[in-house]
Amino acid sequence: MFELVVRSRRVVTAGGERALAVAVRDGKIAALHAYDDVTADVPDARQVVDLGDVALLPGLVDTHVHVNEPGRTHWEGFATATRAAAAGGVTTIVDMPLNSLPPTVDVAALETKRRAAQGKCHVDVGFWGGAIPGNLADLRPLHDAGVFGVKCFLSPSGVEEFPALDRAGLRDALAEVASFDGLLIAHAEDSALLCDPPGPKYAHFLGSRPQEAERRAVEQVIESAAATGARVHIVHVSAAACLEPLRQARRDGVRITAETCPHYLTLTAEEVAGPAYKCCPPIREAANRDALWEALAEGVLIGVVSDHSPSTPDLKVPDFAAAWGGISSLQLGLPAVWTEARSRGCGLLEIVRWMAEGPAALVGLPHKGVIDVGADADLVAFDADAEFTVDAAALHHRNPVTPYHGRTLTGVVRTTWLRGVPVDFLTPRGRFLVGS
């Protein structure tokens, strides 16, 4: 007996949109039937949901989320973050190692974080480790304990307990990661090309973090990855100047991938209206945004993930030099990207490729981010034509701060299923995921 059959004329699979009935047994997708050919099986299903023309997507995979618990749970926490994820169609997140206290830079800290998350997660959760000065010997134990990789910064992270690696530290970390065929992910900005903003306005802040700083750091990662043979990934690419070095590195056989974020694809420097827009690296000009869309279509950027990095409202002061740098968007990434994507002629197939399949492949989760037999029955009913106006106070994020407040977006998540069970926002059913 199937526990659930979900029918839709717009089921988004790797092969495109199809009219299908998705049958679920034991939390897995057990069968795919033609939309009109399920009458014999319906009596054997405990529940049948017919979405009609509402699209059915695989649950999205967001590999770049700062949950901040423990230690800064007043900024965000596992209960609130995973509710926001589910409300936005995200069924898997991977938590970043910094902004929590302690940061996830050794196995003891990883276990502390898992204890903090236990029983609170409404979606499945994995964890990144951290690579900082002095913890080289912890990288393999973190890998063996199940993190999906280790993150480093090449410029100040914004929190004292997670310092940046210098050039030699990056090379050493990559050599160590290569020894067990792990993954290192890097925040790539060159500290030597950053400066303090000379004033409080956004133009001052933007000028203090030029594209060249990103490009130089990306080139540094490429050089070290080529020398060590390590697998590397560049997080939150904001600068078009990075794209040609990434293209060339891929042609040269360097094991490198890169991602971008909804705010770099949907917002522009010309429209920044307050400190809710501040993030590092910064939101850049409209022409730069166009280049990022082209790189996505080309495959130079393999995924779109939130970099959800929230704070309390008091840290978002009007002075851009002093405000906390982080965008709150975990619940809004899907409609934000879809709104812009459809205006550029993209379809839901591309959305799934960028926001589900690509991130799942990055962290080695082939049973996530796809609608296929044997995959987890993580599903999203997405009304791709419905519109809504963002009300920050109505979001599940702990603090009502987002640059999308007041914007009209297209695409509404109607239901999110985690392993075939609807997320009810009351009963946490998420599981911990571990890397291989």
UniProtKB/TrEMBL annotation:
- The catalytic activity of this protein is classed by the Enzyme Commission as 3.5.2.5
Q: Which GO terms describe its molecular function?
A: allantoinase activity
Q: Which cofactor does it need?
A: Zn(2+)
Write out the pathway annotation from the protein's UniProt entry. Answer: Nitrogen metabolism; (S)-allantoin degradation; allantoate from (S)-allantoin: step 1/1
Keyword Ion transport present in the record's keywords: the answer is: no
Amidohydrolase-related domain mapped to chain residues? 56-421
Record has Zinc as a keyword: yes
Q: Superkingdom of the source? A: Bacteria
Q: Which top-level enzyme class is recorded in the Swiss-Prot or TrEMBL entry?
A: hydrolase
Q: State the UniProt keywords alphabetically.
A: Hydrolase, Metal-binding, Zinc
**Oligomeric form and interacting partners:** Homotetramer.
Report the sequence similarity comment from the record: Belongs to the metallo-dependent hydrolases superfamily. Allantoinase family.
For this protein, the record's NCBIfam families field holds:
allantoinase
User: What is the protein name for this chain?
Assistant: allantoinase
Q: Which organism is it from?
A: Sphaerimonospora cavernae
What gene name is listed for this protein? allB
